[in-house]
Write a structure and sequence with these properties.
CATH superfamily of the largest domain: Creatinase/methionine aminopeptidase superfamily
Protein name: Peptidase M24 domain-containing protein
CATH architecture of the largest domain: Alpha-Beta Complex
Pfam family, one: Peptidase_M24
Organism: Paenarthrobacter aurescens (strain TC1)
Number of helices: 9
Mean pLDDT: 95
Distance between the termini: 60 Å
Helix content: 25-40%
Shape: globular
Strand order of the largest sheet: 1-5-4-3-2-6
CATH topology of the largest domain: Creatine Amidinohydrolase
Low-confidence stretches: 4-13
Number of domains: 2
Radius of gyration: 22 Å
CATH class of the largest domain: Alpha Beta
Number of strands: 17
Length: about 375
Amino acid sequence: MTTPTQFTTPATARTAPGNVADRTVKRRRVLDILDAAGRDSLLLTSNTALTWYLDGSRVHISLAGDPIAALLVDRSGDHLVTFNNEAGRITAEELPDGVSLDTVPWHGQLHAAAAGLAVDGNPLVEAAVTSELRAARQQLLPAEAARYAALSADAANAMTDVLTAATPETTEFQLVSELAARIVAVGAEPLVLLCNGAGRSAFRHPLATHSPIGRRAMAVVCARRNGLVANVTRWVAFDAGTPQELDAEARIAAVEADIFRATVPGAKLNEVFTEIKLAYARHGFGEDQWTLHHQGGPAGYAGRDPRVTAEVTDTIVLNQPFTWNPSGPGVKIEDTVLLTDTGLRVLTTDHRWPTTQVDGRRRPLTLRP
């Protein structure tokens, strides 16, 4: 049994990010899913779906835990259910206009309580419409696109600040802790923090250690704010680099350029995946390089939504964000981009970072402080 809850919003409360115009469009998209399924209600329970539909509300406590809210969307409106000990903050800081709030005890059954609000007690569940919900999230709306651009710039700025101050003696843990501090300071959550110094460059998902970074290092940040996740990789080096390193850096940028050219409206993701495999071979990395790390894909309210494979046949649309991350031995390139009517716009940019021209677009070089 859920209980309607009323709370007074403090004057100093954080303003819920939901944009009325954007939320209206999102509700229409979900109602279209219900129409196609011949159903009258849908239960949203994942962080990705909830933060998208609520247009940026924070519905987590632990980054590793399940959301502390569930949402029933039906023909009459939007009905959020949360635990009684979370309701005050949700109401004051996260509840968009037009969404009702019910509570269950902190030890209650959240999903069952939300499902029980459905007229028949048996709403459609996310798992039944995974691809339909993903399609509904593909195209960013104006307000969320602006939020995403701001977050991406903040993530890129954090990279510049931290790597400019790094030295060969900086440890990997020191470097990622500085990155985490800057991400949190701009109101975001560091979902992923990676670093490999010169002695660990073979690892493509390098969790930090106490080792000094040495002559060369890679840093990776995935930062989330208002549900959106920006992803960026950067390199720093304290020497001129070997001829082999410089050559590999140029070739991985060429692989990325081929992927960017394939990322166009109407293309299918499995077609882009085929181009990725060809690009590695084309630029001297070998035909099996794609098997050694995932290649990225659409971005937005999930780190990758989804990771691209040969089985993913989603069609690319305008105003869809992406993070591709081609990598090779000792090299990787990664930025968050938005597909606009004038082409791909790189969002994770900082004018202070050194760049070079690649296929008509400014792309990051290794920073040499």
